[in-house]
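haha ok so turns out i had the wrong file open the whole time. this is the CORRECT one, sorry everyone. sequence first:
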Amino acid sequence: MFVAGRFDPMLVSLARRALLQARGVLALPAAGAQTLLLRPSSTSSESDSFTVLYLVNACGLSPESAVSASRRVWFETPSRPDSVLGLLKERGFSRTQITDVVGRYPGVLLASLDAILVPKIDFLRSRGFSDSDIARVIGAAPRLLARSLDNHLRPTLDYIVELVQSGEDAVAAIKRCPRMLYEDPGILLTPKITILRENGVPRANIGHLVLYHGPIFLASPEQFKEAVNRVKALGFEPSKVGFVTALHVIRGMSEPVWRRKVGVYGKWGWSEEEVALAFRRHPWCMAASESKITKVMDFFVNEMGLDSLHIARRPVVISLSLRRRIIPRCSVFQVLLSKGLVHTHSLGTSLIVPESRFLEEFVTCYLGKAPQLLDLYKEKMGLASKF
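then structure:
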């Protein structure tokens, strides 16, 4: 914690230099020239310097960030800032989180503990947030601490609980998208939820979207409505949960990125209609990177010898890990296939079932005819763990 007079000399020098530069009283040298340090103007004050040095030494800000923050907060003694930092540290905030909070919301250093900070933190704890949750949420959206407890935080959290139908799920939703608790729900959430309801999306599926894909609501109402219309145009039924999944994927990429991914699949012989069909079957196939799509398709077509359209009918495999799932299991499957123990149409099943079922149905039951299977699988899984 900060103790008056105990400043790191190097930080003091850097902070003063940044402060003088910001005031225009430190001339920056030309290449090869000596630095010219002018005396501070009469408008410089010890209080300004104290604030900057405190922000650097006690809060961990860079000298430049401290100068910027000092334009929004000012103090002559460390009493109040020390108590705020002490509270944050006591409640589990890491040094990095404290630096982030102060850097983005310097005013927190002058906030009253009893009237402002403690009641809000205790409220969040009473609603199911752990200390680490609170540090994470406030670290991501520090100005939550500037929001009114009774006029904003409480009704906003209640509204989110109503949407997801569970206090525990509301906590999970806010952890995934802290701005959901900070922003005015009448601006951030309600207009988009109205769009979903008008298009026939069930309440449960809206709750699913809020819970798992909260950042989608950061879009403007116009952008959100456009995405809804695109998903409908691709053939998704608003009453199905796949609609909100597809909406999340669509909002997660620009139109040019979408077109590039369609082009990647096109290189493997898929038509646009087949891409659309694969997307309807498994929307996550379009969330994979272009590199991931290429590597998975190359493996199945060139290593496994499959027709690329076989993958179009089972697009879920695009989302699987190539090293941890596809290669180990396909290595086993190829042995079984070579011995005539399985048929190609079983490949999709072998890839998507849980590991316990895979071992039971594709490894242990065939050890009498292919005793090397288990060792092969363990070897490939061991190799996968190295990547």
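Residues 254-309 form one domain.
again sry for the mixup
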